[in-house]
Amino acid sequence: MILLEVEKVVKQFAGHLALDSVSLTVPENTIYGLLGPNGAGKTTLIRIINCITAPDSGEVRLHGKRMTPADVQQIGYLPEERGLYKKMKVGEQALYLAQLKGMTRNDALKALKYWFEKFEIQAWWDKKVEELSKGMAQKVQFITTILHEPKLLIFDEPFSGFDPVNTDIIKREILDLRAKGATIIFSTHNMETVEDLCENISLVNQAKIVLQGNVADIRASHATNTFVVGSKTSLNETDFELISQKAQNGVFESIIKKQVTESNNSLLSSLIKQTEILSFEELLPSMNDIFIKTVKA
User: Fold this and answer.
1) Tens digit of pLDDT for each residue in 12-27?
2) What is the pTM of this model?
3) Residue 77: how many other CB atoms lie within 10 Å
4) Which domains are delineated in the chain?
């Protein structure tokens, strides 16, 4: 089932084309990466999905129906630029934001108690936001984003300001939210995080979608026919190119490149004839490499 559809969306600002016939589909219960360099159009698209601004043409649909401002209640949006009021107390503000999303005061208090205890931040309740570090404020805003259990969550650089420990905590919470049925759009410049979390992606560059699809399929489609091989003895070049080879603790690790026309099975068969093969793995390009290559093309 498809939760969100963006069809041929166009948006222009004062002579600048921000989005040029952008289309994408986000399946239910997935983590979808929205990627692109600065100024590519990602934030404009996110703002259109959130009904903050309207497209010049094209359409956004939620569960097959054209989105209206009322549908925003079903969305949790964590923007890259944080929006907490610095002079307000944390608990008061979290309660206020929850009620804006349609929660009753009692339901909001109950949910906030659960999350504040889970993140061990009960002591922050009566602190002003300006007293918190960037990471602490980010954790509060993460809670207010997910508190009303929306169908669609949009996270724009959600790990900004977090140390590695808290980044891991939020990653696990995002995966748990997906496991419980949430659909997540995830915008980030960190390609390692994309490989860890995202099933599908759209890469926006200069207002257009330039790459789209399943992450594993995209990496496989950019394969360079390069493999890392662990063996008992050194390898001799036969019908492959030996790029590098080193020995450590009695194991030879070689990086080789096969001929384009040769299958993986035939390559492995020829290696087995030479020596005992301990490991055999294709080296696929990282999403970071693919991002850079695609944007520079």
Assistant:
1) 998 899 999 999 999 9
2) 0.88
3) 19
4) 2-219 (3.40.50.300), 224-284 (3.30.70)
